[in-house]
Amino acid sequence: MRGGRRPRVVYSPKVRKNRNSRGKHSFEIAELGDGQEEDDHTAPTKKRTKMPPSEQRSCVPSSNAEEILEEKLRSRILHNEEEEKELEANHGMSQSYFRVKEGNGPSKKSVNKISDIGVVEEQELQEALAKLIPKHEKEQSDLMQRYRTCYQKWKFQLSCGFGLLFYGFGSKKNLLEDFANSALVDGAAIVVNGYLPSVNIKHVVFTIANILWETKKKMKKKKQSASAKQKKTNGCTHPLSSNSLEDLLAFLTGDEELPPVYVIVHNIDGPGVRDDDTQLTLASVAASRHVRFLASIDNVNAPLLWDKQMACTQFKWWWLHMPTYAAYTVEGIHVPLLLAATGAVKSVRSAALVLSSLTPNAQSVFRCLADFQIAHPDDQGLAFHRLYTACREQFLVSSELTLRAHLTEFKDHELLNWRRGLDGQDCVYIPLPLDALTKLLEDLSK
């Protein structure tokens, strides 16, 4: 083979492998004519062209490659569109957030006044409320009947030393009183209305102690003979004669066996009993072995009235969720009606009623002060010597003593207050808004 022709290596019908000067492989296409032999070294060769790199690496036909490329481009476009939509959605959320923030910013001051609201008189509103037809009376009656089946269970819990605390929507006044009249018949019952504006807690403790004292005397009468009883009764002194709250509470903690006294407190979170001293006294009463304690609450913050020791050691609360859905007719008597004439309107009515009972000179002095306050709304008030000079010029008073007597009368009726002005002098002013003060002067002129 040394002197013969060098054979050519062909890897495919049309692709040849050559080695270039650097020793790397390259592929060339050899176009063979029809009838031309592949090993004919003398035949002229046509121009050979290099394949592009993309076609060199791919053995897949060009039509399939285009389809695959189009599919990849389509998937990439869809992916980009989804990303753009997500970005737009997030951008819209952020924009809406800032728009809301901008909407909550400072706005123009409204010119509306509370005094412009057309409120009605309290009597008219009460008459309208009385005409309302009650609803769901049958369902409320069925609920109360179901609660009556728990009376004996509640009584047993009381006998075990627990205090019953009723909570839930609706007035529980009728429920507690019906429970006392039906089941708590083995002892006296004392009712405390905590929804009242004020409650005399000392009187409550004295009543409990007095009941226990009377019960104690009756029990002694049964054990003693008639003659011995007479001597004993005449010689004994009442243990409550000291009239001290500490002595009354000490008497309640006695060890003698006596019938229980049931204490029922409606709205133990009410305005009359919610102060700390009253709650401590009620806790001491509830801790007595002779007292069995029941109470109701309607305020969501009522548990804040007691600490752990009071709730768990003295009251020993057993919480009972007993919603009645009954109207707070009795409890709401002392609560001001929201839609009735209140605030400045009610103050004007009260002030007009008080001024109508005063002398004409006193009314004139009040009018003089009111005119100055309306004319000078930014001042701290009217100095005493200036008021005296103005009243003296109108011959309303003859001395400072007379003027001070009128001002004291105004102060007692809460028609006037004192405060120190910017110059350090004592000034008097009427604690009413300008519109209410103007309305009051119009009523006085009629």
Keywords:
Rossmann fold, five-stranded parallel sheet, 446 residues, Arc Repressor Mutant, subunit A, alpha/beta, 47% helix, 11% strand, 16 helices, three-stranded antiparallel sheet
N- and C-termini, Cα separation: 146 Å
Task: Average the pLDDT over all residues and give the rounded result.
Answer: 76
- The CATH superfamily of one domain is known as P-loop containing nucleotide triphosphate hydrolases
Task: Using the 3D structure, state the CATH architecture of one domain.
Answer: 3-Layer(aba) Sandwich
Family: Belongs to the ORC2 family.
Function: Component of the origin recognition complex (ORC) that binds origins of replication. DNA-binding is ATP-dependent. ORC is required to assemble the pre-replication complex necessary to initiate DNA replication.
Organism: Sphagnum troendelagicum
Subunit structure: Component of the origin recognition complex (ORC).
Describe this structure in words.
Residues 1-64 are annotated as: Disordered. Helix content is 47%, strand content 11%. It has 446 residues and is an alpha/beta fold.
SSE inventory with pairings:
Elements: E1 15-19, E2 25-29, H1 53-57, H2 62-103, H3 122-130, H4 137-148, H5 151-159, E3 163-167, H6 173-182, E4 188-193, H7 201-223, H8 226-235, H9 245-252, E5 261-266, H10 276-286, E6 291-296, H11 308-314, E7 317-321, H12 344-356, H13 360-375, E8 382-383, H14 384-393, H15 400-412, E9 417-420, E10 426-429, H16 434-445
Helix pairs in contact: 7-9, 12-16, 13-16
Subcellular location: Nucleus
InterPro entries: ORC2, RecA-like_ORC2, WHD_ORC2
Function: Component of the origin recognition complex (ORC) that binds origins of replication. DNA-binding is ATP-dependent. ORC is required to assemble the pre-replication complex necessary to initiate DNA replication.
